[in-house]
């Protein structure tokens, strides 16, 4: 909450460099010598995860314990969610969630040997300190809370970008899609600064903006959704799209090849104002008749081929929207049943339910626009 009205361009917060937790913090700690001599080099992300786990284990002895005590014990990112909850995600979020879970598991597996080398630092078995649950927590802490801060490449780390900085206190600021901010590390003041580009009245909560993300991205990366999010959209998966191809269409394989070649099979969406331009363009190409097929380049440039083609593509958009609406309603029914049977998953299922409810709002509004 702000105790005074904030004007556009005003500084919300400036956090000194010494308060930021970065790979420099890690290298200057007891872990530094172990990281420097380890081969092959670990990634900057692994270094930060290792430090967080070790510091949390140290608890009151850690300089960072007031910050660590404020961090959540668990997160709502897909990495943490039960499989039953993830299976109820819409496509392609379900696929991305599986990719995220695999990525974290692989990173943990590839770090195990390095963790074993740290045994001299701990009186108990190092494998119990650096278990998968601890790594999962550290990875989610970094993924949901770091701010961007570029660091020079160091030989003791692998070639992955080193641009993480945990910013205690600053990460208590919540996201709102309706505000705008300017956030960056100021080289002159040596502080990470956030300035508001929106006004904020006295005694109101001060929000920041994590970026123009839809709810699927927010859930994947941060573990929450924003209701009535203007950036929200319902994604049309490739499988959903291609099942509407007519088997008798002799050019269907050529059409799919063109879409693949121009990378047009991803990011097809329905938004608050109906089907996106990208989705309609793809549908227009799929609806081209045999004698019109040579005009496919004009379609990609946004030209109108014929009234019949326009009507067919809108009809196809309506069919897809209807199918997605039915799928969303079925998912909501499944969630409602699971909430009764799996009481321990109520919080996770409520999050999934909210995601589908937002999708349903968009799809119903798209019906009116179509």
TrEMBL record:
List, alphabetically, the Pfam families matched: Rubis-subs-bind, SET
Which CDD domains does this UniProt record tie to the protein? SET_SETD4
Q: Which residue ranges does the record assign to the Rubisco LSMT substrate-binding domain?
A: 247-363
Q: Which Gene3D superfamilies match?
A: set domain protein methyltransferase, domain 1 (3.90.1410.10)
The record's InterPro entries line, in alphabetical order, gives: Rubisco_LSMT_subst-bd, SET_dom, SET_dom_sf, SET_MeTrfase, SETD3_SETD6_MTase, SETD4_SET
Where does the record place the SET domain? 2-211
> What name goes with this protein?
SET domain-containing protein 4
């Amino acid at each position: 909450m702000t105790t005074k009205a904030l004007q556009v361009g005003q500084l919300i917060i400036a956090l000194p460099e010494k308060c930021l937790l970065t790979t420099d913090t890690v290298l200057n700690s007891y872990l530094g010598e172990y990281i420097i001599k380890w081969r092959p080099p670990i990634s900057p992300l692994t270094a930060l995860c290792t430090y967080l786990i070790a510091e949390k284990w140290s608890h009151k002895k850690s300089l960072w314990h007031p910050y660590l005590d404020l961090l959540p014990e668990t997160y709502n990112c897909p990495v943490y969610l039960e499989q039953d909850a993830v299976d109820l995600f819409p496509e392609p979020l379900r696929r991305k969630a599986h990719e995220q879970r695999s990525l974290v598991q692989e990173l943990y597996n590839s770090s195990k040997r390095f963790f074993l080398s740290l045994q001299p630092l701990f009186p108990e078995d190092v494998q119990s300190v650096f278990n998968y649950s601890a790594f999962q927590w550290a990875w989610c802490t970094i993924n949901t809370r770091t701010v961007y801060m570029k660091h020079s490449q160091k030989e003791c780390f692998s070639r992955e970008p080193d641009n993480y900085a945990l910013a205690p206190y600053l990460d208590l600021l919540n996201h709102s899609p309706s505000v705008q901010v300017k956030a960056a590390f100021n080289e002159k003041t040596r502080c990470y600064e956030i300035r508001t580009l929106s006004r904020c009245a006295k005694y109101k909560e001060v929000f920041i903006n994590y970026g123009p993300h839809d709810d699927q991205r927010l859930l994947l990366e941060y573990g929450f959704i924003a209701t009535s999010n203007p950036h929200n959209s319902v994604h049309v998966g490739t499988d959903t799209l291609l099942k509407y191809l007519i088997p008798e269409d002799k050019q269907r394989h050529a059409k799919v090849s063109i879409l693949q070649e121009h990378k047009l099979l991803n990011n097809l969406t329905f938004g608050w104002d109906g089907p996106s331009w990208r989705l309609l363009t793809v549908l227009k190409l799929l609806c081209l008749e045999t004698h019109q097929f040579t005009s496919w380049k004009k379609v990609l440039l946004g030209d109108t081929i014929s009234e019949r083609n326009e009507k067919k593509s809108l009809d196809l958009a309506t069919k897809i929207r209807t199918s997605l609406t039915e799928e969303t309603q079925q998912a909501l029914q499944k969630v409602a049943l699971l909430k009764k049977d799996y009481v321990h998953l109520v919080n996770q299922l409520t999050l999934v339910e909210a995601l589908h409810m937002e999708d349903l709002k968009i799809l119903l509004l798209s019906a009116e626009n179509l």
